[in-house]
Amino acid sequence: MEWFVGFWILVGIFVGWCWYSREKSSSSSDVTMEQKSGVLPKGSFGWPLIGETLDFIAAGYTSQPVSFMEKRRSLYGKVFKTHILGTPIIVSTDPAVNKVVLQNHGNIFIPAYPKSIREIFGEYSILQTNGTLQKKVHALIGGFLRSPQFKTRITKDIEHHVKLTLTSWKDRPLLLIQEETQKFTFKVLVKALLSLDPSDDLDFLKREFDEFIKGLICLPIKLPGTRLYKSLKAKERIFKLVKKIVEQRKLGLEKSEDQEHQNTIPNDAVDVLLRDISGEQNDKQSLSLDFIISHIIELMIPGEETVPMSMTLAVKFLSDCPVALELLTEENMKLKRQKTDSGDDYCWTDYMSLQFTQNVSNKC
């Protein structure tokens, strides 16, 4: 074991020396380029290779995850340079600067992402899709998610899984909200994307996705045992399962009659992409399966991270504000009494009519 550790220490020293030599030899040309293109903001690139990545990741495990940014903003100003996740970057915490960048997205500023994220998502990633293709995919998926049929279906799915989840909480003395919300939000989202019901495949997908998502923020070192390597292996296993599902669905669509194909309402995002992504409206050639599979996998991220985090923050902030919690409870109980009296099922417009609840959701 000692020789293994010693070997990697030597490798680290050698790579660090190579990096230092390269930086030193190119320093004069860097000065010239800086004079031509403008002055870099203040800041620090940290250690060779890893930069300030360790500080950045460590801050995420504290009660103040924004401390990394706040510390450097106090030292260098609202715009500063740093080096995280294998990439030298400029960080802006200035709303005015951010507005200029976002308004010129794809024009003056070209989107770029850390190496670890590019490695994990691959060449068919949403991040690599630009121009007309990006707009078309966005329109197809967005149109499907906004359709009345989808809203009706997902409302029932959400209600079903929430009831099951609340029932399972009855006799449990301790609940970890983020973990619990991840379980049912992931199920709801995967149903919308793949029409995958609770099964061994869904359990497998959840386990592997948990492993995959951990690599989004990590050092860009792809060696056996590293976080990036484990995440890439998990991605391969996810890709294999999703590919099997997509291929089966594609075969089913090819066997169906043209008229039936046109009139049937899409069941999920896979259905939408298999049917409609093509060069021409009447062209039956769809994009490659790899493109569709990669997009489906990335669309699972909100069910694993974004939505559960928002729901956890909602619980936290409502617990800290009894007045808001009382108003929220009163508004929802009023709707529940109306539905009990009428005997009707909940629908999408019911939730949209809850004005205070909507305000709470939008703030989280």
TrEMBL record:
<dbReference type="Pfam" id="PF00067">
    <property type="entry name" value="p450"/>
</dbReference>
<dbReference type="GO" id="GO:0010268">
    <property type="term" value="P:brassinosteroid homeostasis"/>
</dbReference>
<comment type="similarity">
    <text>Belongs to the cytochrome P450 family.</text>
</comment>
<dbReference type="GO" id="GO:0016125">
    <property type="term" value="P:sterol metabolic process"/>
</dbReference>
<dbReference type="InterPro" id="IPR036396">
    <property type="entry name" value="Cyt_P450_sf"/>
</dbReference>
<dbReference type="InterPro" id="IPR001128">
    <property type="entry name" value="Cyt_P450"/>
</dbReference>
<keyword id="KW-0479">Metal-binding</keyword>
<keyword id="KW-0408">Iron</keyword>
<dbReference type="GO" id="GO:0016132">
    <property type="term" value="P:brassinosteroid biosynthetic process"/>
</dbReference>
<dbReference type="GO" id="GO:0016709">
    <property type="term" value="F:oxidoreductase activity, acting on paired donors, with incorporation or reduction of molecular oxygen, NAD(P)H as one donor, and incorporation of one atom of oxygen"/>
</dbReference>
<dbReference type="GO" id="GO:0005506">
    <property type="term" value="F:iron ion binding"/>
</dbReference>
<dbReference type="GO" id="GO:0020037">
    <property type="term" value="F:heme binding"/>
</dbReference>
<protein>
    <submittedName>
        <fullName>3-epi-6-deoxocathasterone 23-monooxygenase CYP90C1</fullName>
    </submittedName>
</protein>
